[in-house]
Design brief:
With 321 residues, the chain is α+β, with helices and mostly antiparallel strands. It contains 11 helices and 16 strands. It has one domain (3-252): Ribonuclease Z/Hydroxyacylglutathione hydrolase-like (Metallo-beta-lactamase, Chain A). A hairpin with a 7-residue loop joins strand 12 and strand 13 (190-195). Helix 8 crosses helix 11 (303-318) and helix 9 (280-286) crosses helix 11 (303-318). The radius of gyration is 19 Å and the shape is globular. It starts with a strand and ends with a helix. Mean pLDDT is 89; it is low at 1-31.
Length: 321
């Protein structure tokens, strides 16, 4: 038996690859606007690999956000679905785990490297579920300020059928799966997902494991929300909890704590420079995270980009806005 509990304002609203670098984000902002054949060609050599995590949870590594697969005797839930051209490979990878139907797709936020497969899975009968702001952003044209790119609205079949405000719970496969909205984190529609009996957390893009995160301030993201989301996850995680980040390899509570400590150090150091009257350019030139850069700043987001996100997150608060 499947039951689905939801608290909603609007209940029915219509392989990790570090070398991928910045191309992941450049790719996702053009996913819905680019040529389908060009996208298909770009993804032709991508391997989608299924890796067991713990309990009833696997992760799919491909290109784009890490996909959580919750599979049991009743059905399958996908957490995110990467890019549209990868959907046949995603389906094939899921079939190596389970022959049960994909009943739900839960989007952790609106970015196309996490929602690109929505249309395919929606047409195939899966119920797309997301936080309210994900529906709002997918259903309207968006402008990605960080990349100076316009992203057109998604087609109807790609939109969430069920949306929620604060939290949602799935009761499936003899386990509760609970997702919480983390306001103003990576975006304004992020969720973290807890597979309660399997003891697994999916962080979405609130966590980039091993490298500095992208914070989409233009979509309502903010460093404070990123830290709050990590703190909530740490309050849930135990010594045996396995953690799926939005990007990067699997980790655990220790890895999540190290990520939290990096974010807090960035906040405190940049805040101190702002308090001394340093401008954005001066803060970046001061390299306040130099001791972290050799570990965290060599892959996805470069140190100067990350410091810009931190500064822009903190500066409005200095003015009381």
């Amino acid at each position: 038996m499947i039951s689905f509990a939801i608290r909603a304002r609007r209940p029915f609203a219509g392989r990790w690859r570090a070398a991928a670098g910045l191309m992941l984000l450049v790719a996702f902002v053009g996913v819905r606007g680019g040529g389908a054949q060009a996208q298909q060609n770009e993804m032709a050599d991508v391997e989608v690999k299924a890796v067991p995590v713990q309990g009833q949870v696997h992760v799919l590594f491909g290109r784009g956000g890490n996909i959580g697969v919750f599979a049991g005797p009743e059905a399958v839930i996908l957490i995110d679905d990467q890019f549209a051209p990868l959907t046949p490979k995603i389906e094939a990878a899921v079939k190596t785990i389970s022959d049960r139907p994909i009943r739900f797709v839960l989007n952790t936020h609106w970015h196309g490297d996490h929602t690109g497969g929505n249309e395919h899975f929606g047409k195939a009968g899966a119920v797309i579920v997301a936080q309210d702001n994900v529906y709002r952003r997918l259903s309207t044209d968006q402008f990605m300020k960080a990349f100076d790119r316009h992203v057109p609205a998604a087609p109807r079949d790609a939109l969430p059928l069920v949306t929620f405000n604060d939290e949602v719970a799935f009761h499936l496969n003899g386990e509760e799966v609970r997702a919480w909205h983390i306001p103003h984190a990576h975006t304004d529609g992020d969720v973290i997902v807890h597979f309660t009996k399997s003891d697994v957390l999916h962080m979405g893009d609130i966590m980039f494991n091993g490298f500095y995160p992208f914070i989409d301030l233009g979509s309502g993201g903010n460093l404070a929300g990123m830290i709050a989301g990590v703190e909530k996850a740490l309050a849930i995680a135990g010594p045996k909890t396995r953690i799926i980040p939005g990007h990067g390899p699997l980790t655990d509570r220790k890895g999540l704590t190290a990520y939290r400590d990096m974010l807090v150090a960035a906040r405190d150091r940049v805040r101190a420079l702002i308090a001394r009257g340093e401008s954005r350019e001066e803060v970046i030139a001061a390299r306040p995270m130099a001791d972290y850069d050799t570990t965290w700043g060599k892959r996805f987001i470069k140190p100067e980009q990350f410091l810009g996100f931190v500064y822009d997150s903190l500066k409005p608060a200095q003015g009381g806005n």
